[in-house]
């Protein structure tokens, strides 16, 4: 009987140690990508490289708050998807591990940190996603500009992400400030607020709500609009004629990452031909020359200054909260 118990204990211990060992081989990632998008990326990663990844997705602001709370021992080995401006702040917090990845050699210099602390793999930009059926039903004009959105006819029919929670929302506000100047932008946002029925927690949620007919107009990000249109919803994506801000979506390795070698392989994969092709199926534009994104037109992008956005982020967020988060 004792021998049987001993053998059983050894077998159980072996299973537990094996499970722990397998878990240690997995790389843990944080991301502001959607759950569905990130799942396709890690599935492609495993299929192409054999690397298994676990991931946690939240909005940019939620992830950033978590990172700051966990530092210096961040709970992930790498970040796959984050605002460019937050890469600068993460560097200031000494959270990034330099890595010179050979897969990124042909990516233009403006899309990567010279010390290899962060790598920009795709672009995304603000866009309007309007429900054309609902516009017709309500007798509303189709908006084509930022200026149109403050027309009183749209009162209660606009939904947009809250800049306090969403990177998409922050991009909207910082874009308008760079387009219009500080004073005029805050005056514009005050007028826009009169027409906004709801500020959401995520940048994708407005597009989904417009697609489902809850609101006629959403301010969102490009792929959220294009995906709903592809799914058959009566959604039309509109780039405001004044232009839109864009963000370089970045990846990085955390300093003293638990699985450093696996994290480096993830960065290699993101910058590889296969990694960029996988991204190009879900993102409008990717940064590797010769790899096409998901759209076949050139959006009207402003000369968005991500460094300025990072330097002024706290001030902008504070003013937004004081003015609109009531």
From TrEMBL:
UniProt entry keywords in alphabetical sequence: Signal
Coiled-coil intervals, chain numbering: none
Signal peptide bounds: 1-21
InterPro entries on file: Ferric-bd (IPR026045)
Keyword Zinc: no
Name the UniProt record assigns to this protein: ABC transporter substrate-binding protein
The organism of origin for this protein: Sporosarcina siberiensis
